[in-house]
Design goal:
CATH class: Mainly Alpha
CATH topology: Phenylalanine Hydroxylase
Shape: globular
Mean pLDDT: 90
Structural class: alpha/beta
Strand order of the largest sheet: 4-3-6-5
Low-confidence stretches: 259-280
Distance between the termini: 15 Å
Number of domains: 1
Number of helices: 14
Largest sheet: 4 strands, mixed
Order of helices and strands: HHHEHEHHHEEHHEHEHHHH
Radius of gyration: 18 Å
Length: 280
């Protein structure tokens, strides 16, 4: 991308001094994406979006958190652009969603591999008003902290195929709830088309399914309802992880990355790939 993003400092009251250009970028992104998610996002996401009432400036986290905490006790935690896996899981277990305090440059408006504050806030916080979604993330954080570090990369697939790129059945048809979809104009317009495969969510299948962070997803997992989201973790997840390791991964539905892209994505060893995926 030719630019290294660094999070802005947060003052002692939790506020960031955003520039007028950064607020303009936020305004452009929010205005554009709101039009695109209509008809694609599930009602729960759209209701959360209305409740949070994003305006023309990047939200200040203390004000956003006051709204979120009134729903399910969650909040957003400002973090550096990159955090370690253990910190990520710890924050989730404490009902805090991490958000790096930087926003993409205007020239990166359509795509940014690094997750900025637009992705984190627009993609994820509307559903922090939804209890099953919140309960899943908190329990996922708790489970991941108990997992062996070498297994966390595989375990994270449950998060990737739900919280980041999940679809859900509704009485209005198939809709999206994943933050990686609903913060991306391209993925929002693509996800419900026949260009991708859709399959009912199964934890063991998800644990055996590889993914890439830098492409349109070739396959999406579908939930019947948000109540099913929490039920995923009511299984013996660690036994499923062991079974998935024993059976091995399915053949990827995408071409391999070249070395340069892999390096940029931070996907060398298990921990770095896990980190890159979590911050995506």
């Amino acid at each position: 991308m030719g630019h290294t993003y660094v999070s802005h400092p947060v003052d002692d009251k939790g506020y960031v001094q955003w520039t007028s250009t950064e607020d303009e970028t936020w305004r452009t992104l929010v205005t554009r994406q709101r039009k695109i998610v209509e008809g694609v996002a599930c009602d729960e996401f759209l209701e959360g979006l209305d409740y949070l009432a994003f305006d023309e400036a990047i939200p200040q986290l203390p004000e956003l958190n006051a709204k979120l905490e009134a729903c399910n006790g969650w909040g957003v935690e400002p973090v550096p652009a990159i955090i370690q896996p253990k910190e990520f899981f710890t924050l989730l277990s404490r009902k805090r969603f991490p958000a790096a305090t930087f926003i993409r440059l205007p020239e990166h408006m359509d795509y940014l591999q690094e997750p900025d504050i637009f992705h984190e806030l627009y993609g994820h916080t509307p559903l922090l008003t939804n209890k099953p979604y919140c309960d899943f993330m908190q329990k996922f954080g708790e489970l991941a902290l108990k997992a062996e570090p070498k297994d966390r990369r595989r375990l994270f697939r449950l998060f990737w195929f739900t919280i980041e790129f999940g679809l859900i059945k509704t009485d209005k048809g198939l809709k999206a709830y994943g933050g990686g979809i609903l913060s991306s104009p391209g993925e929002t317009e693509y996800c419900l088309t026949d260009k991708s495969e859709k399959t009912s969510f199964d934890a063991l299948t998800a644990l055996r399914t590889p993914y890439r962070i830098d492409i349109m997803q070739p396959m999406y997992f579908v939930l019947d309802s948000f109540d099913d989201l929490f039920e995923i973790l009511n299984q013996d997840v660690f036994a499923l992880v062991e079974k998935a390791k024993e059976l091995g991964d399915f053949e990827p539905k995408f071409p391999p990355k070249d070395v340069k892209k892999s390096d940029q994505a931070g996907s060398g060893d298990d921990e770095s790939e896990e980190e890159g995926a979590m911050r995506c």
